[in-house]
Amino acid sequence: MIGIIDYGMGNLYSVSKALERLGFDYFVSEDEEELAKANGLLLPGVGSFRDAMAILVESGLKTFIEKEVEAGKPLLGICLGMQLLFEGSVENGETPGFSFLPGKVKKFPYKDQSGQAYKIPHMGWNKLKRQQPGSFLLNEVSDEHVYFVHSYYVDTDNRDVLLATSDYSEEVPAVVGKGNVFGTQFHPEKSSHAGLTILKNYAEYVERNDV
Amino acid sequence: MLTKRIIPCLDVKDGRVVKGVQFVGLRDAGDPVELARVYDKEGADELVFLDISASHEGRETMVDVVRQVAAELAIPFTVGGGINKLEDMKRVLRAGADKVSMNTAAVLRPELISEGADYFGTQCMVVAIDAKWEPELNAWRVYTHGGRTQTEWDAIEWAKKAQEMGAGEILLTSMNADGSKKGFDLPLTKAIGEAVTIPIIASGGAGSGEDFIEVFRVAQADAALAASIFHYKETSVSQVKNLLKDNGVAIR
């Protein structure tokens, strides 16, 4: 059973319905005791890194999530939820993140290496480049298109956490993971075949991880 | 590489699609959910629903439509029409829409854009601009209230202002081209696209697949929206996308 963490920063309806269509059990909760019963967690998120982190700290959910991850419970962050898994963001001043994964969240530079301006947000369907095609999360996923919508991206030197990337002037981490912590920069529930397959792969992993 | 997006637009009134959509084999051609499913299968990259309901009940029905579309489809969609305050945004975004589109309300009170952007992020905020070329002014003017009211805003200046207030995308409709089927308004699309750094959805005037090639190649639009050309089966989303692919335009 997947516990979707409700901390008021995300569209939980679409991802819930996607899990339902895929045939997986889930529940939505903000309550630690309830969420502790889940076999795996899902951390959604849209909006600002700083606001999201502030709510997680204040509600005690940050400590709870850290404890659960430490104990080996799977966690999947989506969109902003993925960015929170990293060390921190420069958005509206420095804000520390969970630091489960190495790397920092930065704003896209508005100009590419040749000085050419490009559009921000990175909005639309872009192609995945699998960096670790053997990852269970990418099972039955090819270099397909997924739907991105973000103005900040993760900058990391550690290629081990990059399961798939996408090119948008910079190399954009699209699917990340290490140990029992995973994330997608795009919304899998809005990313057609590839997105739903990744969601399914995560849900199956959670079921296998049934402890 | 980021692909160009093809976006069918559905006008919905009291929960029903208006402007007869001609699809064979549909149980109910007025059902927005069923049409959304058809467009998704054809390869639409996104959908726009424009709620033209005049009544409170009609707007509530739209929320149900949003919820059903979000429950069934795995592609993003925008809802426009009747977005006049933060509460209206919350209603449709929480029901599963990915973006809201504002038009007249944003012109009347541009702070509406920043209120929404602060709450949901700029990526959810689409500002729809209806622009018309005024030869005597040698400029494009912004119109509101469904194209009935001319404003003092120059379209380029308003697009810049909308971006500054927190718009994440501009849905640009050329009133000169709209309904003409003679192609998108390339000069307008190009001018607005060069004035801002957020993506532009070009709208109005699509009459053939070739028009899409031009709007992407010549005017550098990020996405193109069309209604009747798809609804009346003059061409299909998949035909347009195949044509674009054959002409070297990056598409999904």
Tell me what the structure shows.
The complex is a heterodimer of chains A (211) and B (252). The longest helix of chain A is centred in the C-terminal third of the chain and has 17 residues, at 192-208. Chain A starts with a strand and ends with a helix. In chain A, the strands form three sheets. Chain A has an eight-stranded mixed beta sheet. In chain A, strands 6-5-7-11 form a four-stranded mixed beta sheet, covered by helices on one side. A two-stranded antiparallel sheet of chain A has the order 8-10. Chain A has 211 residues and is α/β, with parallel strands linked by helices. Chain A has six helices and 14 strands. Helix content of chain A is 27%, strand content 29%. Chain A has a single domain (2-208), classed as Class I glutamine amidotransferase (GATase) domain (Rossmann fold, 3-Layer(aba) Sandwich). Chain B has 252 residues and is of the alpha/beta class. Chain B has a single domain (5-246), classed as Alpha-Beta Barrel (TIM Barrel), CATH 3.20.20.70. Chain B contains ten helices and eleven strands. Chain B has helices at 32-42, 56-72, 86-94, 104-108, 111-120, 155-165, 186-195, 209-217, 228-231, 237-246; strands at 5-13, 16-17, 47-51, 77-80, 99-102, 125-134, 139-144, 149-154, 169-174, 200-203, 223-226. An eight-stranded parallel beta barrel of chain B has the order 1-3-4-5-6-9-10-11, surrounded by eight helices. In chain B, helix 1 (32-42) packs parallel to helix 2 (56-72). The model of chain B has no long low-confidence stretch (mean pLDDT 93).
Low-pLDDT stretches of chain A: none
Overall, the morphology of chain B is globular
Would you count the extended β strands of chain A for me? 14
Uncertain residue ranges of chain B: none
* Main sheet: strands, sense, barrel of chain B: 8 strands, parallel, barrel
Q: Give the number of domains of chain B.
A: 1
Helical stretch tally of chain A: 6
CATH class of chain B: Alpha Beta
Estimate the strand proportion of chain B. 15-25%
Q: Round the Cα radius of gyration of chain B to an integer and report it.
A: 17 Å
Radius of gyration over C-alpha positions of chain A, nearest whole angstrom: 16 Å
Going by CATH, the architecture of chain B would be Alpha-Beta Barrel
Q: Might you state the CATH topology name of chain B?
A: TIM Barrel
Quote the average pLDDT of chain A. Answer: 95
The secondary-structure class of chain B comes to alpha/beta
Structural class of chain A: alpha/beta
pLDDT average of chain B, as an integer? Answer: 93
- H/E element order of chain A: EHEHEHHEHEEEEEEEEEEH
